[in-house]
Amino acid sequence: GGQTLVEKIAQRHAVGLGEGESVRSGDFIAIRPRHIMTHDNTGAVIPKFKSIGATRLADARQPVFALDHDIQNTGDKNLAKYRGIEQFAATHGNKFYPAGRGIAHQVLVEEGHAWPGTMVVGSDSHSNMYGGIGCLGTPVVRTDAAAIWATAQTWWQAPPVARVELRGALPPGVVGKDVIVALCALFARDEVLNHAVEFAGDGVRALAVEDRLAIANMTTEWGALAGLFAVDEATLRWYEARAVTHPTDVVSAATVAGLRRSVEAEPSLWRADADAAYAKRLWLDLGSLTPHVSGPDTVKAATPLAVLEARRVAIHKAYVVSCVNSRAKDLREAADVVRAVQRARPGAQVRVAAGVAWYVAPASTQVLADATASGDWQVLVDAGARTLPPGCGPCIGLGVGLLEDGEVGISATNRNYKGRMGSKLAHTYLASPAVVTASALQGYICSPAAAVRGDIGNAVEPPSVRYGIEPSAPSTASAAGAAALSSSAAIDGFPAALSGRLVFLPADNLNTDGIYPGKYTYQDDITREQMRTIVMENYDPEFSRLVQPEDIVVAGANFGTGSSREQAATAILAAGVRLVVCESASETFKRNAVNNGLLVLESPPLVAWLRARYSAPLTVITGLDARVALTDGRITLVDAAGASIFEAAIPRIGKAAQEIIVAGGLENWVRLRMAATS
């Protein structure tokens, strides 16, 4: 079969592939991304970079620093951190954008660092946003960032890819935010968890690039590792316009003309192959969609606005902020609501409702300049919006305007988890900028039409949204790792195969606190032997007694979810376990595991087979042996009599991951690589 667009872009950035080798879902590869973005967390990456012995950037063109998270904090400690980051960039010669320039993801798109057809990674979960302009954006952890600074590369496991077909066209008043809010709720059973999502179909053509950016941005909340739109005529025209109105060193008439020539001359490089293999195929009829509101307090539930409006949900705060919905188009749509209400009430000054605090922030200084020039910004200010600087602010619970106990907020941001925007005793809904603005003016969640009328009018039952899942043909390039490539050879020191007792943990969502209790996380003097005795303490206190060195642990779905603490991986290693196989794993946990020398592989068929036979206790000593061919991509179970009773495919362990495992983790690999090149 052919390749998906995700696989094609990843292949362009892969390092060390053999002649004729193709990147497929499930493959572990070394990647050299076009850029690595860090923001305020640059302050945490710098000491990690120095601790591995690095003294210079391998490629000063790669790192991009953009300060955006805590920019309202003018305390001495934060300002000192910001100065230190700026000084590091000045010393090493990489790109730096100071606090106040804008939200990092927006800045990378505006400046052209996120560029169509390339791969850009960021130490932030919303790096998915770059997919809106045809750039494969995906998050990495801080150790990866330090590794890229020092060596220009890190590792990546190509994820399974889901194809989402958007059919038809959006009705008036329905925008990209409604699309992704609906998708998160309609497909709320982890259908795309740890997948990359490719958007396709005739419905894409009519989507503005700003709507694509919003959709790609919130694929993060949908559970995906990337959300990607192919470059098309709309993308090219958007860049051609920007090359005139907002030229940069990268976004110029010459570079954009070159982009068009490449797309037109070699279209196959810019889209998925017709016979590409997808793990899943989903579809959504855009024509059946109405405005939707997410929540409260979860993105996995959404209500048609017409239904929620009838409930007259009172609000205390409203927000048009964040990297998902604070671009010029969003501010224009918000201002247009105010203008429409003003036209309906000639002679009266339209103002935010009494008792409602309404906050507005541009995504960047460039957005602010555009919105000011168009008059949109002043319209919002005159209506009572309280302005905030270009940054993350209340979206991540920093600065002024946070939700307090018992309050209800409606926001054009991307997350509404409890406590995200303030108090855990508050409630948060998500909606488009136009709906947020209408709600701010009325004091309760409502549509722009209701704001114009001044009341909600007669309740109307919205039509049902049409959507579905299509069967996918079995693929030799599936996420199970049965790649259509010859098996990779084991490098010196890497075991081509592992074998050991199979220990089964039937639970799903076994989180990092269950694996390594939080009360130990900041006790820096805990020894490896102590780690061995407390591993899985909050899940099963008996685990540390039952497990033996060289055991192979098999676990359920979403293994390692929760916090990003690295000790969850190192504690498993301390118990003598070198391999965990699970139905699915938290991507952050997986990266932390491999970065510390622990292999984590996924095999849903294996877990399903075990579930049919074992459900208790919490830790099952199965009496079976697991024999794992790491370079061939296969696991076999053997019973006490020596008979093979089950076999399944697993991801092949390629050279990139092998090198890290042999080195004992990514930091050691970086040290060895720097020593070899010095």
Give the strand order of the largest sheet, numbering strands 1, 2, ... along the chain: 24-23-22-21-25-26-27
Gross morphology is: globular
The biggest beta sheet reads: 7 strands, mixed
Low-confidence stretches: 475-486
Report the portion of residues in β strands: 15-25%
Average predicted local confidence, pLDDT: 94
How far do the termini sit from each other? 42 Å
Number of DSSP-assigned strands: 27
Compute the number of helices: 24
* Class computed from helices, strands and strand pairing: alpha/beta
* Fraction of helical residues: 25-40%
Helix and strand topology:
Blueprint: H1 5-12, E1 14-15, E2 28-31, E3 35-38, H2 42-51, E4 63-66, H3 76-92, E5 95-97, H4 104-111, E6 119-122, E7 136-139, H5 142-151, E8 154-157, E9 161-167, H6 176-186, E10 196-200, H7 209-217, H8 219-222, E11 226-229, H9 233-245, H10 253-265, E12 280-285, E13 292-294, E14 302-304, H11 305-309, E15 317-320, H12 328-344, E16 357-360, H13 365-374, H14 376-382, E17 386-387, E18 408-411, E19 427-430, H15 433-442, H16 448-453, E20 467-470, E21 497-505, H17 512-515, H18 528-534, H19 543-546, E22 552-555, H20 567-574, E23 579-582, H21 587-595, E24 599-602, H22 604-611, E25 620-629, E26 634-638, E27 644-649, H23 655-663, H24 666-677
